[in-house]
Write a structure and sequence with these properties.
The complex is a heterotrimer of chains A (249), B (44) and C (94). By secondary structure, chain A is α+β, with helices and mostly antiparallel strands. Chain A has two domains: 107 residues, RNA polymerase, RBP11-like subunit (Gyrase A, domain 2, 2-Layer Sandwich); 94 residues, DNA-directed RNA polymerase, insert domain (RNA Polymerase Alpha Subunit, Chain A, domain 2, Beta Complex). Chain A is built from four helices and twelve strands, in the order ββαβαββββββββαβα. In chain A, the strands form three sheets. Chain A has a six-stranded mixed β-sheet with strand order 1-2-12-9-10-11, with helices on one face. In chain A, strands 3-8-4-6 form a four-stranded antiparallel β-sheet, with helices on one face. In chain A, strands 5-7 form a two-stranded antiparallel ribbon. Chain B has one domain. Chain B has a three-stranded antiparallel β-sheet, with no helix packed on it. Chain C is flat. In chain C, strand 1 and strand 2 form a beta hairpin. Chain C has a single domain, classed as RNA polymerase, RBP11-like subunit (Gyrase A, domain 2, 2-Layer Sandwich), CATH 3.30.1360.10. The longest helix of chain C has 26 residues. Chain C has a four-stranded antiparallel β-sheet with strand order 1-2-4-3, with helices on one face. The chains are: A alpha+beta (249), B mainly beta (44), C alpha+beta (94). At the A-B interface, strand 3 and helix 2 of A face strand 4 of B. Strand 3 of chain A pairs antiparallel with strand 4 of chain B.
């Protein structure tokens, strides 16, 4: 059985994208979604050594905040689970310690954003710490979750059935996601999610297109959307290969 | 164990038999300082 | 991934697939059901808090003359075919 898929991007940025996949079964679509959320490993801080912390927060609280800072994750194969990267931070008040103050020992592993506040330090307060980042999966801790907003919806086909009766008031009809109108893909945000804006005076019919799903994927900055999707697919493939090998024995 | 006198701000070592008292100014309120060790914390 | 056969007859197989969850099991089950010579395919998982059996158990029933283990091997190959096709289609669009 060979599957025929067709992928088309609707919206696309590095960290945020929307794309349509045709020919995919609900089971497979959900497998990919779940793999994106829980099975694609990312780097995150796991251990922190505090040299000095005279801030108003406990070491453990700051460790948690440091752990939640998204770090860029190197390409597949560069790192394996159990490898560590050391990052250090040294900020003296009065100032706010930001994720951008973290200095990494590896160019490939850097804070994905520089402007995540960690703590505000008053005059005389100081934070000096060293942290180890590890590669892990979202399954083990949310800080290792590369996909932060991952989901899909059916593609909806909208067709005009008839004109509205002359004296009938048109009611608003809300749809969210992406619609297909005569083969053209239109995000519903273009008409304020209301079909009565796009088809004034018309009677329309909306139906789910079978096996066509519009994925919405947003990453935490660990990698691009393309990376996340391909790594998720890779992880499912690796398991299929493993099962095939195990059954053959 | 190192403490700091809350009045004269000097470092004080507590003498087990001398009671809680600053040897420099006689003040009886001492503040316990954070240890100077590096502390390792796991992210949970 | 560790496999342990819990029940096996001519046309029925129950197998424990250790270390997997819904992510892979549902894809596998869905793929198994696409085959005409598989009459039934299902899996069962218990939550971690339940104690006892927590690894998923896959059960396959096949028509006469078809080895369920072979059907499973074929389905695993199918999943691999799907992932390859998906990656190709995705990369072509990206």
């Amino acid at each position: 059985m060979t599957a025929e898929y067709d992928v088309e991007f609707v919206e696309r940025e590095d960290r945020d994208a929307r794309f349509l996949v045709r020919g995919v079964t609900p089971a497979f679509a959900n497998g990919i979604r779940r793999a994106m959320v829980a099975d694609v490993p990312t780097m995150a801080i796991d251990t922190v050594r505090f040299v000095e912390n005279s801030s108003v927060m406990f070491d453990e609280q700051l460790a948690l905040r440091l752990g939640l800072v998204p770090l860029t994750t190197p390409p597949e194969g560069e790192f394996v689970e159990d490898d560590t990267v050391t990052l250090s931070i040294d900020v003296e008040g009065p100032a706010t310690a930001y994720s951008g103050d973290l200095v990494s020992s590896d160019d490939l592993v850097q804070p994905a954003d520089d402007n995540v506040p960690i703590i505000e330090l008053k005059d005389g307060q100081r934070l000096e710490a060293e942290a180890d980042a590890v590669l892990e999966r979202g399954k083990n801790h949310a800080k290792h979750q590369g996909g932060v907003a991952v989901g899909y919806r059916h593609l909806q086909r909208v067709s005009v059935v008839d004109d509205l009766p002359e004296f009938e008031e048109q009611e608003s009809q809300i749809v969210r996601g992406v619609i297909e109108d005569d083969g053209e893909l239109v995000p519903t945000s273009e008409f304020d999610h209301d079909l009565s804006n796009r088809y004034p005076g018309k009677q329309v019919e909306v139906e789910d297109v079978p096996n066509a799903f519009v994925f919405r994927v947003e990453t935490d900055g660990s990698f691009t959307v393309e990376e996340l999707v391909t790594r998720a697919v890779d992880s499912i493939e690796a398991r299929a290969t493993e099962l095939e090998d195990a059954v053959q024995l | 164990m190192s403490y700091k006198c809350s009045r004269c701000k000097r470092d004080v070592q507590i003498d087990e038999y001398g009671g809680v008292r600053c040897p420099y100014c006689g003040h009886r309120v001492l503040l316990k300082e954070r240890s100077r060790d590096v502390k390792e914390v796991g992210v949970n | 991934m560790e496999l342990r056969v819990t029940e096996s007859t001519e046309n029925e197989l129950s197998i424990e697939i250790a270390g997997e969850d819904h992510t892979f099991m549902n894809v596998l089950k869905g793929t198994l059901l696409e085959h005409d010579d598989i009459t039934a395919a299902t899996y069962d998982v218990n939550p971690e808090q339940s104690g006892g059996q927590t690894e998923p158990i896959l059960t396959i029933k096949t028509v006469e003359g078809v080895d369920p283990l072979e059907a499973l091997e074929e389905a695993a190959a199918d999943v691999r075919g799907k992932t390859t096709a998906f990656r190709d289609a995705f990369e072509a669009a990206a």
